[in-house]
Amino acid sequence: MKNTGNVKLTMIIAVICITLVVSPVTGLHANELIKKENKTENQTTTYGQEGTGTEYWALIFAVGIYKNNPSKDRPEMIEAANDLKDVLLDSPQWQEDHIHKVTGVEATGRRLIKELIWLIRNEDADDMSLIYLTTHGSPLIGPRGYPVDIPPRDENDGADEILMMYEGFDKWYAFIWDDLLNFFLSLLQSKGVCLIVDSCYSGGYNDGPMFKGVMPNQYTAESFTQGFMEELGTQSRVVLMSCRENEVSYGNDFSGLLIGGFVGLADLFGNGDGINSAEESFYFAEFWLELVGQQHPTILDLYDGEFPVTYN
Predict the structure, then answer these.
(1) Which of 1, 174, 189, 245 gives 20 to 30 Å between its CA and that of 70?
(2) Using CA atoms, how far apart are residues 161 and 155, in angstroms rounded to an integer?
(3) For the stretch 128-150, what's the b/e string if a residue is b when 16 or more beta carbons lie within 10 angstroms of its beta carbon?
């Protein structure tokens, strides 16, 4: 049968998914994921319009280096991660031990899951969580050029969206896909979740297909961007992506402009309330990127009001 190889590929990936979720990860079983660490009184803070006890948590994950594939390396991803952490710590509501940053050779799929579990265990319903991911991305295409939708089969185009991990170009299975990421994000209780994805593939296949062979034309960058949005567009989330269909995402320009917004430019060009929100920073980045005709960032905003990132 024509699709035998593709079916086997799907089954193998499904087994990996079950193994990652059910087996012990950093000393935890799946039924322990939602257990929270006890918070001490000196950790609770109040800023702006947020309620008493609101804490801010961030997971900053930038791959940037790819095992045995130096041509795929993007050191600017790691630079952006470093800059983002520094900018967050310059704002009073962020604490060093509330931010985890993972880059380069440490940015494996297992490590990403471990860090998501850390976030799940520590945040609660009165908190704000920010997740920043930057790496290469693509629809999931099998070795024979067919799309792969890992169960549950929920993709209109037949292909899950994936983000490449450190070994992603060395081992075909070293990626995180949208359903698995959404599973962990859905365990967050935070009243606000901001997800930022700056991916080279989110607006165009400028790095070539994941597997050898020709990528079918129907699996466009629009499939990746829209699929990712649909999968992750739940809860009180604001999702920011670097570009849209059939576009090249140039380096980490989107991240650089977002970070510039968080420094203070967002509020300067925004409503002037002293808060640099995710939305204001997005529209600041969008303005400049579209002004030069470079790319068109994409936003899905399901957060009530504006998601505060830094305070002036």
Answers:
(1) 245
(2) 9
(3) bbbbbbbbbbbbbbbeeebbbbb
> Which string of b and e fits 232-246 if b means at least 16 CB within 10 Å?
beebbbbbbbbbbbe
Residue pLDDT, tens place only, 164-179: 999 998 988 888 887 7
Helix axes 4-22, 178-186, angle to 10 degrees: 20
Tokens standing for 49? 């319009």
CB 136 within 8 A of CB 161: no
| CA 186 to chain CA mean position, Å | 13
Mean predicted lDDT score pLDDT of the chain: 77
User: Residue 224 corresponds to which tokens in the numbers above?
Assistant: 């990746």
**Which pLDDT band holds residue 181 (cuts at 50, 70, 90)?**
confident
Cα of first residue to Cα of last residue in the chain, in angstroms, is 62
* Contacting residues for 10 by C-beta, under 8 A, at least 6 apart: 148, 149, 150, 151
Q: What is the pLDDT of residues 121-172, one digit of tens each?
A: 999 999 999 999 999 887 777 777 777 777 666 666 666 778 899 999 898 8
SS3 218: coil
Question: Closest Cα to residue 286, out of 266, 304, 307?
Answer: 266
Structural Rg of the chain based on CA atoms = 19
Helix axes 109-122, 178-186, angle to 10 degrees: 20
- Domain assignments of the chain as residue spans, ordered by start: 4-28+49-311
**pTM of the predicted protein model:** 0.78
CATH 3.40.50.1460 fits 4-28+49-311, yes or no: yes
Give the whole-angstrom CA distance, residue 75 versus residue 135: 10
Count of H-run helices and E-run strands, the chain? 8, 11
Question: For 186-195, what is each residue's pLDDT tens digit?
Answer: 889 999 999 9
Contact 225, 202 (CB under 8 A): yes
